[in-house]
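Need the bound structure for magnesium ion, inputs here:
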Amino acid sequence: MILKLAWRNIWRNSRRSIIALSSISVGVFAILLSDGLNTGMIEQILSNQISSSVSHIQIHNKGYNDNKVIQSIIPEPAKVEQTIKKNPEVKSFSKRVIAFGLLSSASSSTGMFIYGVDHKDEPQVSSIKDAVIEGEYLMGNDKEIVVGKKLSEKLGVGIGDKVVAMSNTPDGAIGSDVYRIVGIYATASSEFDKVNVFINIKAAQKLLEIGNDFHEFALILNDIKKLEVAKDEINRILSEGKYEVLTYRDLLPSLILQIDLYKESMWIINLIVGLALIFGIINTMLMSVFERINELGVLMSIGMKNRKIFSMIVSEALILGVIGTLVGLLIGAAVLIPLSNTGIDFSWFAAGLESWGVGSIVYPSFMIENLITTIILIPFITVIGAMYPALKAIRLEPVSAIRYV
Amino acid sequence: MEIIKTDSLEKIYSDNGVPVHALRGIDLSIQKGEYIVFAGPSGSGKTTLLNLIGALDKPTKGKVFYEGKDISQKSKKALSDFRLNNLGFIFQAYNLIPVLSALENIEFSMMLKGVEQKIRNERAFSLMKDLEIEELAHKKPNEMSGGQQQRVAVARAIINDPTVVLADEPTANLDSKTGGLLLDLMEKMNEDKKITFIFSSHDKQVIERGKRLLMLKDGLIEK
Ligand SMILES: Nc1ncnc2c1ncn2[C@@H]1O[C@H](COP(=O)(O)OP(=O)(O)O)[C@@H](O)[C@H]1O
Ligand SMILES: [Mg+2]
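Answer from helper R.:
Posting the output first, comments after.
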């Protein structure tokens, strides 16, 4: 009955209530929009990093990740390969030779990471093949090289041009070889494209003089939720302490930290919007209390307890808060769900985004935790906003409330 | 049986710092089942006296006894309970909750007492039938005439079987025919249910029909 009364009281002054509802809905929508874009960007950065090179899990010689020297090769690759193949969570994997070196064209030269990969396995793990915008991906021939768009521009080379790669060999000599550009790729991150080049694994082993050895197994799982399960299982089998098994969370600590910080900071965004809303709620509820002082006097006279009067007024605000939040969520869903498929094109000012590894089209996305924060916090704030007006109401004396004109 | 007794009741209001002596020492005794009218000119203290008897306000001096117990020093919450359990109120205006129908207004008082929904509904309907206001059941106050609203207010005041109903100028906003019908109704409730009615009024009709009359003047009872 209190709820019924509260509900009807809201619609006594429907214009005022609709204004209050709208401001809550707009606030919630603003939170969703900002959260959707931020989360979308973060997830894109993460998924771009995973798909361009990081993959889900990497296996190296122990200590490789902290000190990426050419000598740090995988001790017993056959054993590791067997372990991976037996693991049901692993969808695909690729072997990689990785080295730092210098890439030169006729006119210029630049530092680069050279990846030696299998032209058939690597596309099962990373997206570089799909990112080729000119020419072809590796086809398994010795002298092929695929470079990023930014790097090709820097060196002033195009498809068919020759480049020379140089790198240290394990015994301190310098290996070098000539390659012909067969493909140019562009990922969402121009920073990545500027420094990473791809050749066939055999060619890389020859360049570095490391026989059949290599540095990394990159794994993609069937289900990303099994990340830790898969890691633990591989670790359990490769238990001699010779290897390191790292998930993308281990490999991208600063990005993961950023995501965690962002989740925390959603509180602040919610709180700022909530603070903006709370004054509107206080005002709305105060006006509604002042309009019915006589009525409150009668209610008190006939024996309605302060507790009930208080909860009636707080319920009114809570209803406004819940409906406003739901409407905001619905508008958010109606606007952002279609956009999460088509994406929002920020190319008109996206130069900055691209070097960040986001891509110029942002696909809004949501973290369930953040949605829950909003769904709880905003109605809670409206309740807080109703406290003062409700206190005002119960401080009335029945006699003076009835006499009030 | 004596139900209400006041003992040299005084009430001094402060009107922006200026003391206003609204009651100057009221001694009276009211028996159960009485039908009593406080009459007197405007400003003579009728409403103030009714509010003190109705436990809506506290006296500056003196005491109010209800069934022999002093109620003048009880806490706000205790007074609220006391009103809910023993008293019914009819005011001059703003009696009904505008967003509730007649039926819901009557049920509301029972809800405050914690009466179960099903019983509330039955009792409200049967009383409305008694008072011949069933056809108003689903109307909102703004769809009713002043007389109809006051009849619903009577129903709400007596639904919890109070011992005493206090009615402050209940006919003030009604024409004399409608006022007369309302008085018929309350008289009937007084006779049938032995509910004590205490009125404040300067309406000739109410005063004439009162079974006991107390004239107030300047905060004192005139003999
Ligand atoms: N809350 C109040 N504050 C100040 N003065 C009041 C208040 N209530 C009543 N009075 C004064 O007390 C006197 C008695 O008022 P009241 O009991 O309302 O008389 P009546 O009901 O007979 O017209 C009047 O002079 C009135 O102005
Ligand atoms: Mg009066």
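Comments: Chain A touches chain B at residues 1, 4-5, 8-9, 11-12, 294-295, 297-306, 308, 397-399, 402 (CB under 8 Å). Chain A has 14 helices and twelve strands.
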